[in-house]
Amino acid sequence: MRTFSQTALHRATGPVSVFRKGAGALTGTYLCLCLFLAPAHANVDSPAADDLKTVLELFDRADYRNACEMLQALYQNFPQDPEINYYYGRAAFEIKDYETAMRAYERVIILDPDAMHARLEMARTCFQMGSFSQAEQLCYGILAETPAPETAETARLFLKRIQDDRNRQHLSMSLSLGTTNDTNINTSPIDERMSISQLSDLPGVSDASVSDIYGYADVQLGHDVQLGNTPFKWHTSGRTYQSRYNEDSELDINYFELSSGVKHDASFGEWRLLATGNKLYQNSNPYLEAAGLGAGLLFGLGPRHYLESEFLVKHKNFEASREKDALSITAAVENELLFSGFDFKTGLAYESESADIDAHSFSRVTGKFAAGRALPFSLNAFGEYRYEFTEYRDRDEQHERKRTEHNHQLSAGIGADLFSSENTSLQIGLIYTFMKNYANIPLYEYEKNTVRGFLTLSY
After folding, report:
1. Does residue 309 share a domain with residue 179?
2. Does the residue 145 lie in any domain?
3. Predicted local confidence at residue 372, as pLDDT
């Protein structure tokens, strides 16, 4: 989980996608049996029997997108037809619209509580959404009702598939390349580098905001391995981020991060204990290094509702400004809800940083609200508003008073899937961000606009 009190690096990279990544695909015996248990032909008693025959022909040709569009129209006319809802869910699942699939299967179960094939498909969808515990609970619920032998066997095979998947080693990778136009390159709530109009009032300083373009590369790797026969996994992740400015090379960034620790996917959710360290270079010179310990918990409040919390303690060493060396404590919580085709996220975080000199110590509260939605033609869009309130604990050295800041950020973006398979995706996108910082000391007031284009490969 990325804490909401972002580092300078996180501000530079920004969000890549607001959509939850799926787990590995379910294939083989489970999928075959699941399809075997499903209705193999259109019900002649259905008011849309002829249309459903056409849908099944599209399924035979693996033309799931056109099938989904046709089923969406059928659903509008026959919302109480369980068969239409079932195939609507199946088609939505195949085009990776898991939210729509979940809603369709829920309607099937409400209309026909004995529809075991819909429950199995719902379990498969939960698995793809990363809700392993929810998928298990659905399968155990099916087995508890003494279903038909073939249905029980399918549920048992699926449970074994989930356990086998948990026991495997998992390797994930993300590579993002992009370029950003920044209208005020020297401003950041973290580094406090100022290049704004108020500086013209100071002796020997002139010029307002400076605009520049920089390119960046962001590589993230993750690895999970089961610890013997225990329910625990050892997780290791690494990240490197490099940025190069077109004009002002003094701001070039090299960032490296490594985290490692244990995690456990329990029945109530996933918890983890990690040790982390990072190193930041600016213009090839050491700028900041940090090391710490963290704990996190992610659990599902339902098939489409998640709550994630994190607690992190870090010690920071500023190479060029030792008086800024600090102990940082962060606590954050994020709520995610998938509803009516939208992915809503709300978050709240508190950060306290105690520096060697109190003038650099601060407390920060951050809140955010974000919404994303999948669109036709493999497009997705998102918007986010973020607010930060920062209060410093001692008087500013130059202005003889305590400094407070109110930072507002508004972002909007659109992305497109150029390629998507069971385990790999390639996405292109564009993000615009407006930032405005208010402060009780005019020197620290500024605003900036950034436009970022990116290409991301995920595995």
Report:
1. yes
2. no
3. 93
Name 57's Cβ contacts closer than 8 Å, sequence gap at least 6.
none
Total domain count for the chain?
A: 2
Task: Indicate if 406 and 333 belong to the same structural domain.
Answer: yes
Shared-domain flag, residues 121 and 250: no
Is the pLDDT assigned to residue 126 strictly greater than 80?
yes
Residue 157 lies in a domain: no
Same domain, 331 and 440: yes
- Asked which of 2-6, 312-316, 337-341, 367-371 is least confident by mean pLDDT, the reply is 2-6
Task: Locate 429 and state its tokens.
Answer: 């996108």
Q: Which two tokens stand for residue 299?
A: 């659990």
* Confidence (pTM): 0.69
Could you tell me the CATH number of the domain that includes residue 40? 1.25.40.10
Q: Domain of 210?
A: 8-23+169-458
211 and 323 inside one domain:
yes
**230/103 Cα distance (integer angstroms):** 35
Does the residue 219 lie in any domain? yes
